[in-house]
Model the fold of this input.
Amino acid sequence: MGYITLLPDLPLVWNFILGAIVAMIYIQGIILLMERLVNSGTLSSDLSRKVIHIAAGSFIWIWLFMDTSDKLTYMLNIVVPLLFFLTFLLKGTRGSPDDKDVKTMTRTGDPRELLKGPLYFTIVMMVAGTILYGTYAGMLMMAIVGWGDGIAPYIGKRWGKRKFKTLGREKTIEGSIGVLLFSVVGCLIFYVLLGIIGGIDFGTNSVILANPGDNVDARMIVIVIVILGVVAMVVEALSPSDLDNLLIPASTLITLFIIDILLGNPLTGFLQILPFSV
Done:
């Protein structure tokens, strides 16, 4: 499959190391760094949330190293999202404004915010790491919700001048363009990282764009990524507050599904729980 593994005979051990220990060090390291920068006044809490958002969405780099020889243990890549899901549930109901997660991941310092966007984001991560593991859909979904949706609000707030209102929410043209540009950038980065460098055979493991075993036309990939970026831009502009972390991934999957139908290969494998043949 092109995945890198150092313990081919111990997939459970190796996948636990990657999915639980390495992933936790990665995410917690980012959070601790952001906390220090916010406390020192070097970084605004607004920007720290976006850095964490992008870093969390980028957790799929772990896929490069997971051992998929075992049909279930590669799902250990969702250990950290699951732990954060439970943490947000707890701190969102009982947390303090002084808690580091509250300070670095909320806009207002209200712990209840953790039960909205951050909680929804962990759900999306878990879907990507299980049902959509090793697929175009999972990869592109995380790139768009992590990069495109992650950076757009900051761009709009920092440089946005041309404002417009949708469903009572004020947006900026600059922020919307940011969704498009960074969605495309994120998708291309992960396509190169996972598909080219990692050698993951998306053609075999995904219904999107290719029949099993086909080589995917790079130009078609770029066209599809741009289409997804445009859809994400529109959905982000129209999304009610705090629901974009759910609506953008959903719109990405729906768009890919429509593209798949237009290419004449509907449904095959799209909803299978295990992306790899048993």
Q: What stands out?
A: The longest helix spans residues 11-39.
